[in-house]
DNA sequence: ATGAAAGCGCTAACAC
DNA sequence: GTGTTAGCGCTTTCAT
């Protein structure tokens, strides 16, 4: 692979001059510029960004740590992150942390070793104290990581309220929440709180069922089947859309009709769900806006490591009404 | 951020020694090792992989160029790639090329500039001659890129045959194929050919409808609606599962029953579809195996740029039978 | 068992 | 308008 020196030799100038041409810096004669450009073309030259970054420049690399990209919600989020970051000249290193805290720690070390300019983190793992001392700009999605790390999230509390309202409005009397395991400090808990608080107004009964985020769809389906077979609930709020899909599936299998026998509200409202399951009433998170805010904040910190930021940035959610609460 | 020299000073040894400790190289006394390790811990030291790579080492970075990760198929594929590569000590730079050839070219340049060790590419863009001269190990998924680049794919031809068989077996008489726009040199065409060839045996009629891969679900839905309203077909093969979902949606809206009025076979068989749409008959691509082969080949080329590889690696597909062809 | 010194490819004063 | 030089943080001979 050609180096700056190769170009310099071929163009008959010094390395500095080539560097100047590349970075469009200082004053160059048209003649040299042309010569250098030609040489670059001829050797199919690409400046070694490793060397560049070594000299103190940014790497233009951002680490993205999320549970995993096979989930449509995070798939869309990563796509959005990649898209917006690309336009600003950054690339991303994708880190699927899954539910493996050790892997997440490894990734954190690697990202430090690679001198990424910053990190966007939104995994579900807890107790990773390493976040305290990465010494790199970090923005978190929807999780508390450390006191210094700003959290961007949608308005989970209001989302919970909206879900409750939709269920109540549709005439449900015996309500059920199906949610991931209860993580302390997680803004996601607010979905629950909002839901409960809203219900207090109407004095209705409800139950909470927790199913680990990392359980397989089969396991989740089983638990849902158990729940539904009792035929005791007529309104369900799932704190994510995929679980809601499972409820529809199991209800159908049990001969229960949605929404006649049981009403249903999901959460997330990805493009995928909106296109392929428009029947589902759900609370839509503004993924694009969330990402925009995260990137904005992150790049601010990249430019100035010590710039002051709020602890929390909360973006509005929206209820999308489908037939499952008709 | 601490450097090797900082550690050397703190431990009271030379930089060379620290380097030896890090790389577990040459002969070291236990005493020095301990001192150095302590210093590293104290300063939360991470070796600068940029500097390391500059010295001729590999970057342990692999570029992954795909249409986009918000599609469940590619989402699962990327997740699989990331997973398998992580275990071998590599990280990935994610490049969503979308349907933007210029973006793909940009990414190619960036990947060269970043000195990634290799590239896995499976975008849908055509006419990117740059692949000819990247000078980096590349493996392609399901697309022809250049004569030197091996293609790994599932057995598209047999997949087409299986789809046809399933439809015929279920008693369909007037068949329809819905597929992406016909790209020259794309192994995906084989799905069509396999389907057609199989049909010749049974002497049934069929039509082909092309819908661009990059069309929105709404657009696709519209075309499908037009098609279905004529009520002329009773068996449909979609060359991807998401389109099949759209067919189910439109059929329902038109009051047509699946499979009574129209039978349906999809293609891909992701975990997502298997879990959330088990009713869909589909041809499953062995994503995990495909990725394993791609990575195996890629790493061979990383170790030895000139190692001989086959042009094509074809992995077996499997028909998953659901109720849409019952 | 350890250190000194050169160099990977690039940028940025500092000359002229 | 262009060249010289000194590093960035690390690895790697070659000494000792």
UniProtKB/TrEMBL annotation, chains A, B:
<feature type="domain" description="HTH lacI-type">
    <location>
        <begin position="2"/>
        <end position="56"/>
    </location>
</feature>
<keyword id="KW-0238">DNA-binding</keyword>
<dbReference type="InterPro" id="IPR028082">
    <property type="entry name" value="Peripla_BP_I"/>
</dbReference>
<protein>
    <submittedName>
        <fullName>NTD biosynthesis operon regulator NtdR</fullName>
    </submittedName>
</protein>
<dbReference type="InterPro" id="IPR000843">
    <property type="entry name" value="HTH_LacI"/>
</dbReference>
<dbReference type="Pfam" id="PF00356">
    <property type="entry name" value="LacI"/>
</dbReference>
<dbReference type="Pfam" id="PF00532">
    <property type="entry name" value="Peripla_BP_1"/>
</dbReference>
<dbReference type="GO" id="GO:0000976">
    <property type="term" value="F:transcription cis-regulatory region binding"/>
</dbReference>
<dbReference type="GO" id="GO:0003700">
    <property type="term" value="F:DNA-binding transcription factor activity"/>
</dbReference>
<dbReference type="InterPro" id="IPR010982">
    <property type="entry name" value="Lambda_DNA-bd_dom_sf"/>
</dbReference>
<dbReference type="InterPro" id="IPR001761">
    <property type="entry name" value="Peripla_BP/Lac1_sug-bd_dom"/>
</dbReference>
<keyword id="KW-0805">Transcription regulation</keyword>
<keyword id="KW-0678">Repressor</keyword>
<keyword id="KW-0804">Transcription</keyword>
């Amino acid at each position: 692979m050609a180096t700056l020196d190769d170009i310099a030799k071929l163009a008959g100038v010094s390395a500095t001059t080539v560097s100047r041409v590349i970075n469009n810096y200082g004053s160059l004669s048209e003649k040299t510029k042309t010569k250098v450009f030609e040489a670059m073309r001829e050797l199919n030259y690409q400046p070694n960004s490793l060397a560049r970054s070594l000299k103190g420049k940014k790497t233009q690399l951002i680490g993205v740590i999320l549970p995993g990209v096979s989930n449509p919600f995070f798939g869309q989020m990563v796509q959005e992150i990649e898209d917006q970051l690309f336009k600003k000249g950054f690339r991303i290193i994708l880190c699927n942390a899954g539910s493996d805290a050790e892997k997440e720690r490894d990734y954190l070390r690697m990202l430090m070793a690679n001198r990424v300019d910053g990190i966007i983190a939104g995994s579900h793992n807890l107790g990773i104290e390493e976040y305290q001392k990465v010494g790199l700009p970090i923005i978190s999605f929807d999780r508390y990581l450390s006191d210094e790390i700003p959290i961007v999230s949608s308005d989970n509390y209001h989302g919970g309220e909206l879900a409750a309202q939709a269920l109540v409005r549709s005439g449900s009397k015996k309500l059920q929440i199906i949610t991931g395991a209860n993580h302390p400090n997680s803004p996601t808990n607010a979905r629950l709180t909002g839901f409960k608080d809203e219900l207090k107004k109407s004095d209705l009964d409800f139950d909470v069922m927790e199913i680990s985020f990392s359980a397989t769809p089969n396991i989740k389906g089983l638990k849902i089947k158990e729940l539904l077979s009792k035929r005791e609930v007529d309104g369900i709020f799932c704190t994510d859309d995929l679980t809601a899909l499972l409820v529809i599936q199991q209800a159908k299998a049990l001969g229960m009709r949605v929404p006649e026998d049981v009403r249903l509200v999901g959460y997330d409202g990805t493009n995928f769900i909106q296109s392929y399951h428009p029947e589902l009433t759900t609370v839509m998170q503004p993924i694009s806006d969330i990402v925009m805010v995260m990137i904005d904040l992150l790049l601010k910190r990249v430019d100035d490591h010590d710039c002051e930021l709020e602890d929390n940035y909360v973006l509005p959610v929206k209820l999308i009404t489908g037939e499952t609460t008709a």
